[in-house]
Amino acid sequence: MIYLVLAYFIIYFIGIHIGFWKILDKIGENGMKAFVPILGPITRIKTVGRPAHWIIYFFIPIINVFCWYYVLFDLLKSFGKTRFYHMILGVVVPFVYLPYLGISENEKYLGKASELPKIVKSKRREWADAIAFAVIAATLIRWSVMEAFTIPTPSMEKSLLVGDFLFVSKFHYGTRTPKTILQFPLTHQTIPGTKLKSYVDWIQLPHYRLPGLVDIKRNDVVVFNIPPSELNEGIDRPVDLKTNYIKRCVAISGDIIEVKNKEVIINGETSTFPAQMQTSYTVEVTSQLRDRVLNNYDISGFSVYGRKGNNFLYRMDLTKEQAAQLKGLDFVVAVDMENRSEGEGEYDIYSGMDWNADWFGPLQVPKKGMEIEITEETLKRYGEMIKNYEFLRDVTIEDNKLLIDGQEVKTYTFKQNYYFMMGDNRHNSLDSRYWGFVPEDHIVGKAFFIWLSLDKNRSFFEGKVRWDRFFKLIE
Fold first, then answer.
1. What sign does the dihedral 8-11-17-22 (CA atoms) show?
2. Cβ pair 234, 350 in contact under 8 A
3. Which of 421, 420, 416 minimizes the C-alpha distance to 440?
4. Domain spans in the chain, listed from the N-terminal domain onward
5. Which DSSP symbol is given to 42?
6. Are 258 and 315 a contacting pair, CB within 8 Å?
7. How far apart are CA 105 and CA 100, in angstroms?
8. CA–centroid distance for 349 within its chain
9. Which pLDDT tens digit goes with each residue over 172-184?
10. In 60-205, at which residue ranges do the beta strands (DSSP E only) sit?
11. CA 168, CA 160: separation in Å to the nearest integer?
12. Alpha carbon of 6 to those of 10, 110, 141, 179: distances in Å?
């Protein structure tokens, strides 16, 4: 099926260039200019009457998408194609529609769009055209280039804060081809303001990834679709419509990951901590803390959970620097980091082993082409991955045996890469330690930069807008 997808994009690319070639021939230009880099776009820009300096915009991400469609719609106007369905044909099948305009003797070039008499449209028609263009352009940008994302939970604090608004790059790791195509534009799971599904899954296309600029690296901050369906309110949604999560990739495919007393060890070497990593502390104080103190030390994740004599006990998510600052206050009795013991298993930890958030592994991250022997232990570690994410139709696990299409297999070779994700707020993060690896086809993109940050606990007069985080690159 991947060859069909590649064939489609090859046909798309060749088709639009053939279309421009024949159109240029029709208007008396040398059609071969359509195939010459830079000269081709310049010629198309002049053909519709746009200024030559527009060529600069074609090399600016996001803006180039808008410019492409402006020129395309102007070209349609040059042939008198101004109705809404003409624009749809130009967007959906330009590799067919443009060659038709260039070859058909019935289609006449009327002149540069900028020089043609302005078509009088009703206000309703003008608004409809503007909205249609905006929706089409925004949908294409959201799918192929960049998408807005909001940090909803504190699992990445202090690296990323609740209320950060950021852009996620789709082209860094390669854009995924659409899978669920019957969907209300610019929505994810539901129609805004309602609980109604914004999609139907009657048609599901093959899911592939276009070539990207870089591979996922350790310590990248990645947005992905959460793999297990049970975390999505018990609904088994299509891959591209599962809930978006953001975490740090601590191990890539093929790595052996281990956590020893909170230290992440990759392939036998201790990994560096994120600069703003948080863990949970028990803080004993002589009196309840006022908001002023919490704000002064930028403490957001906290709760009162008990008393010790006359003192109050708080549970706080802190960086090492914050913990050291609190220890120096005269009303703070103790600041103790929460510790889990080795062999003290957590009931919801991944693979059902005697592991916990601070003592985990060793565990190898599956890699495409990696072969494993099927045993009781490997089924605990990889059985759910094979069953749910390896594109197999009939998989059952029973009596420590793996059955594929009703046949027992003794070894298994993985069909895609996987990644191990963890939040920087290590004791307050639901991540790969609990639900396992992230398959490659669940990767959405790379968290790129923050464009807005709002503190929900403060008013505009108390510093609600975090100005220092504007346009901050994410590391």
1. negative
2. no
3. 416
4. 2-144
5. H
6. no
7. 9
8. 25
9. 898 888 888 888 8
10. 146-150, 164-169
11. 13
12. 6, 35, 20, 15
For residues 25-38, average pLDDT: 87
Strand blocks (E) in 267-331 = 269-270, 279-285, 302-308, 311-318
DSSP of 327-373: HTSTTEEEEEE----TT---TTSGGGSS--SSEEEEEEPP-TT-EEE
* Predicted confidence (pLDDT) per residue in 114-136, tens digit: 788 876 667 777 677 777 767 77
Q: Name the residue among 277, 387, 262, 376 with its Cα closest to residue 323.
A: 277
Mean pLDDT of the residues in the chain = 86
Contact criterion met (CB below 8 Å) for 35 and 28: no
Other CB atoms within a 10 A radius of the CB of residue 462 amount to 10
DSSP state string for 390-403: S--SSEEEETTEEE
Residue 313's DSSP bridge partners are 284, 306
CB-CB contact of 374 with 401 (8 Å): yes
pTM above 0.90, yes or no: no
Residues 222-233: tens digit of each pLDDT:
999 998 765 545
Provide the 3-class DSSP secondary structure of residue 78.
helix
Identity of the amino acid at 235:
I
The answer to whether 95 touches 73, Cβ cutoff 8 Å, is no
Q: Give buried/exposed letters for 199-214 (b at 16+ CB in 10 A, else e).
A: beeeeeeebbbeebee
Q: Check the CA dihedral 295-299-305-310 and report its sign.
A: negative
- What is the rounded radius of gyration, in angstroms, for the C-alpha atoms of the chain? 28
**C-alpha span between 454 and 447 (Å, rounded):** 18
How many whole angstroms separate alpha carbon 189 and alpha carbon 236?
12
State yes or no: cis peptide before 362, omega within 30 of 0: yes
- Are 282 and 339 in contact by the 8 Å Cβ rule? The answer is no
Q: At residue 442, does pLDDT exceed 60?
A: yes
- Residue 218's pLDDT is what? 95
User: From residue 159, how far is each of 221, 301, 337, 416, 463 by CA, in Å?
Assistant: 10, 14, 19, 30, 19
Q: What are the counts of helices (DSSP H) followed by strands (DSSP E) for the chain?
A: 10, 21
Provide the token pair at 46.
């002049």
The helix/strand/coil state of 123 is helix
